Amino acid sequence: MNKLKQYVQFDKWKCLIGIALAIISFIIFALFKSWNSAVFYALLFLSFGAVRLSMPKTWISYILFALWALFAIWLTKIAPSYTLNLVNHTYESKSIFYLNYLCILLIITAVFALSTNPKLAINLGTFILIALAVTNGFVYQFRGREFGFMDILSIQTAINVAGKYHAEITLNMVYVVVRWVAVLFIGFTLPKLPKLPRILPRAIGAAVVILVVLLLKPMTAKFHTETWACEGTRLNGFYINVYMGIRDSSIEKPKNYSLANIEQLAQKYLVTDPIPEDKELPNVVIIMNESFSDLRIFGDLNTNAEITPFIDSLSENTVRGYAVSSVFGGNTANSEFEVLTGHSIAFFPEFSVPYQQYINHKTHTLVNILESYGYQSLGTHPYWNNGWSRNTIYPLFGFDQVTFSEAYARNYPVRYYTSDRDMFDYVLANLDYKEGDKPLFLFGVTMQNHGGYDYKGKDFVEHIQLMGRDEEYPLATQYLNLIHETDMAVEYFLHELELREEPTIVLFFGDHLPQLESGFFDEIYGSNFKTLPEQQLHYTVPFFIWANFDIPEKDIPCTSLNYLSLHLFNAAGLPLSPYQRFLADIEQTIPAMNPRGFYSKEKESFIEYDEASSEEKDALAQYHALVYNQLFDRKHKNTIFFP
What we know:
The mean pLDDT is 88. Helix 2 runs antiparallel to helix 3 (35-49) and helix 19 packs parallel to helix 20 (474-498). This protein has an 8-stranded mixed sheet, sandwiched between helices. It has a 3-stranded antiparallel sheet with strand order 11-12-13, with no helix packed on it. Strands 1-2 form a two-stranded antiparallel sheet. The N and C termini lie far apart (81 Å). The protein has 643 residues and is an alpha/beta fold. The longest helix is centred in the first third of the chain and has 26 residues, at 118-143. 49% of the residues lie in helices and 10% in strands.
């Protein structure tokens, strides 16, 4: 008994703190009506608050410390899945699972190297990471995506708009914080460890930090940052996903990057032709249609009826063709990024999404060009406002007005989403009732044809059927019916525009091909896609430019999304900006491009970038330099190309 009293001592002040924490935790969990947790944590704080262990500094002390430290690290690892309500719904591979522990070790060891205090390293290191996990929960509520490195760089913007958001503290967030406080409190019960010498432990800690930092990049080389919704925590684990966001936070500076060369290039494109005073500026409407494609590029679909008869019939006052997209089956934001900025995703790290990773400041885009010509602007999307952070990105791109699902009437619903017909009605209403005499530039992203082609509702009738196939393809069949719905909506939209006297020009294009049944594309193509030109079919989307006034008709068999604004401006009779005129010259050498390769006029085929001729390499190098200059070299951004 005497020995027990010697090792387990009553601590008055710790007891008072334990009582206070017991009351606070009980009240907090009671507010959530989580009574079991309220009682459990109240008893835990009361129990550990009454005692302090005082043992000889032997191996038992080290074992108790090790067990406590392991529990604290485990709690830190699972904290992000709790704050995002993803408990039991994470799917990290075994290798990336351990990489998250390596990130935790990195932070704790860094604190240890500075303090040489093991207990402080655990407490402060886990506090930093737990705080990051809770912050992630709030960021996800605000933006519909996870916390990333770019959020650190845009902290001032976040502070400015913080009052516009409503933060909800969830029960799982409370669990994380209370559990961490409990672990911290238990740590104060443990016996003190012997003091360590300062130099050797610091040197070892610093060496471990340097080693882990050097190892993380090659160890994560095969993994990519997940930026959609909560996929980072679900698939990668939050901590390693944040690290990879830092890893991919900027594109590599182009070889032989020179500000003098950029300035010399800018002088070549300095003068922009003025708009004639007597010219009536047309309204400009760009519709990026979700997953719209022409699957006939793969071969004969053999359907019981035509899929897009109206769009196929367009010829008068129409420019039409096919453009190479940079994405397949998803990552819609990259397609609109290319169209609005003129920048190709080919110059960014693989799997990156600039909207999520690189845009945290005002960025010169197509919106600014048209506004300089006297346009008012509207960016709209009939779905969640935080999808791909559009509620943050569109204002940075210069849109006067931004609207989302709440602005739409669902008079003609199709499956789960706002239909193309409903969106076109919204566009027509904005054209009819726009403010003042300024022409309107409207950029709209549809939702009707979004993936998930397994809708079973009786309100959606499938008129289009695949014929003569060895297998049934229900996903492809539903997708083709959705495209047929789009065709009817486009017919209605363009007919309504024809009845209006005010000149309007429309650019309509698909953002990417859909993800359908495995083997479907192989069957209609008749073989596997072995060569690069064959593989590029999966990235080829149709587009058309149509006007309710006279424009030259034209077919463009091969371009890419980053060049579409050039063809739109030329058809509308609008002068190209300096950067657009630069792109027009680049297009003469590199007619189409995406991350997989580019179309070589010299070889009349798609080739990989390392096969480029010297002239093609020079054009690509100039293009890469300007993309880098605008987005990453902000101190020296060229104001001729990017005013």
